[in-house]
Amino acid sequence: MKQLFRETWIEVNLDAIKKNIRAFRRYIPKQTKIMAVVKANAYGHGSVGVARHALQYGATSLAVAIIEEGIVLRQAGITAPILVLGFTPLSRVKEALAWNIELSAFQVDWIKEAQKIVRASDFSGRLNIHVNMDTGMGRLGVRTKKNLLSVVKALEASPDLHWNGIFTHFSTADEADHTLTKLQHELFVNGLRYLEQHGFKLPTVHMCNTAAAIAYPDYSADMIRLGIGMYGLYPSAYIRSLNRIRLVPALSLKSRFSYVKTMLSEPYTISYGATYIAKKGEVIGTIPIGYADGYSRALSNRGFVLYKGKRMPIAGRVTMDQLMVSLGERKAKQGEEIVLYGKQEGGEITVDEIAEMLGTINYEVVATLSNRIPRLFLVKGEVVEITHLLPKG
Ligand SMILES: *Cc1c(COP(=O)(O)O)cnc(C)c1O
């Protein structure tokens, strides 16, 4: 295959994604469906490629954060149900209808206005709505039983809207202390019972993200919303320590030396601020990745890359598009492959370790990888699909 992309790339191991989905499939109850969460470009893995394959591997629907992300999937020909988890302004309701994308809602006024918009539009079909209940996340959602009832009544009275789901989201399901999750679950179940007492038949009920799906299999309900676990990362060290499910990371970040030099003369300074001074005879490799690609500048003089399976320290500051590493006395060559996240010849740099170094979580490390980096999707080590900045050709 002719290489049409830059020499920094992400490899997404689809066999790992398949294994992870299958692992959850075996772990959760038979009747529980899997919604693959592919927001934020599938946590940096590439949304269209991941979505398409996740559906092949057993997910039955998709979730995104904003409507644009759903439209991107529809434009790629994906026909499975897609739910927008975040708030959608009324100005976007027509698009949701046109693209058959399901929305979350929790306000009576919003529902009444959406009904008018759908009624006035030329599109046939109803707008599918999932009601969001806030049981302790404090982000979006209806907060009291009374309001929940009004929202559902408004929805059921809307001829052009269809009540398709009801959900809540846990804020501490990845922690060892179960107190708040149990309270959230109780509030949610009470809300559901209250609706049933008022004669409503419940649509699809869902509450679990990855952490809750692992720690509270009893809460699986009709569907889980599987994000980070599908990508082979654990939501927290606590969830990993439960040892209930074995996940395989799907993403590797790789590059090639764009230049290698031996420092033989003054000046020995490396990168902005001249914070690194090389020794005479030290070999310095330049790598074409920087903070604009999502490789954090906070890794300056701290991070590592793998070369021939060994860790080489970053020398000086990470710049917008490039960084340098010290190779000691190793005579590396321009064009040789290096690994920033993932495995190489017995060595490994995990996304979890990078997150730890940066004082953040693995979610942020992968979700911030920019679309400037091409994504190569692999099955059994063979590239089956590539997405990159330029249109095909
Ligand atoms: C992002 C998100 C998820 C997925 O969470 P993971 O921890 O990645 O599994 C599920 N539900 C909602 C509402 C979300 O915003």
From TrEMBL:
<feature type="active site" description="Proton acceptor; specific for L-alanine">
    <location>
        <position position="272"/>
    </location>
</feature>
<dbReference type="GO" id="GO:0030632">
    <property type="term" value="P:D-alanine biosynthetic process"/>
</dbReference>
<feature type="modified residue" description="N6-(pyridoxal phosphate)lysine">
    <location>
        <position position="39"/>
    </location>
</feature>
<dbReference type="InterPro" id="IPR020622">
    <property type="entry name" value="Ala_racemase_pyridoxalP-BS"/>
</dbReference>
<keyword id="KW-0413">Isomerase</keyword>
<keyword id="KW-0663">Pyridoxal phosphate</keyword>
<dbReference type="InterPro" id="IPR001608">
    <property type="entry name" value="Ala_racemase_N"/>
</dbReference>
<dbReference type="GO" id="GO:0008784">
    <property type="term" value="F:alanine racemase activity"/>
</dbReference>
<comment type="function">
    <text>Catalyzes the interconversion of L-alanine and D-alanine. May also act on other amino acids.</text>
</comment>
<dbReference type="InterPro" id="IPR000821">
    <property type="entry name" value="Ala_racemase"/>
</dbReference>
<dbReference type="InterPro" id="IPR009006">
    <property type="entry name" value="Ala_racemase/Decarboxylase_C"/>
</dbReference>
<dbReference type="InterPro" id="IPR029066">
    <property type="entry name" value="PLP-binding_barrel"/>
</dbReference>
<protein>
    <recommendedName>
        <fullName>Alanine racemase</fullName>
        <ecNumber>5.1.1.1</ecNumber>
    </recommendedName>
</protein>
<dbReference type="Pfam" id="PF01168">
    <property type="entry name" value="Ala_racemase_N"/>
</dbReference>
<comment type="similarity">
    <text>Belongs to the alanine racemase family.</text>
</comment>
<dbReference type="GO" id="GO:0030170">
    <property type="term" value="F:pyridoxal phosphate binding"/>
</dbReference>
<dbReference type="GO" id="GO:0005829">
    <property type="term" value="C:cytosol"/>
</dbReference>
<dbReference type="GO" id="GO:0009252">
    <property type="term" value="P:peptidoglycan biosynthetic process"/>
</dbReference>
<dbReference type="Pfam" id="PF00842">
    <property type="entry name" value="Ala_racemase_C"/>
</dbReference>
<feature type="active site" description="Proton acceptor; specific for D-alanine">
    <location>
        <position position="39"/>
    </location>
</feature>
<feature type="domain" description="Alanine racemase C-terminal">
    <location>
        <begin position="250"/>
        <end position="378"/>
    </location>
</feature>
<feature type="binding site">
    <location>
        <position position="139"/>
    </location>
    <ligand>
        <name>substrate</name>
    </ligand>
</feature>
<feature type="binding site">
    <location>
        <position position="320"/>
    </location>
    <ligand>
        <name>substrate</name>
    </ligand>
</feature>
<comment type="pathway">
    <text>Amino-acid biosynthesis; D-alanine biosynthesis; D-alanine from L-alanine: step 1/1.</text>
</comment>
<dbReference type="InterPro" id="IPR011079">
    <property type="entry name" value="Ala_racemase_C"/>
</dbReference>
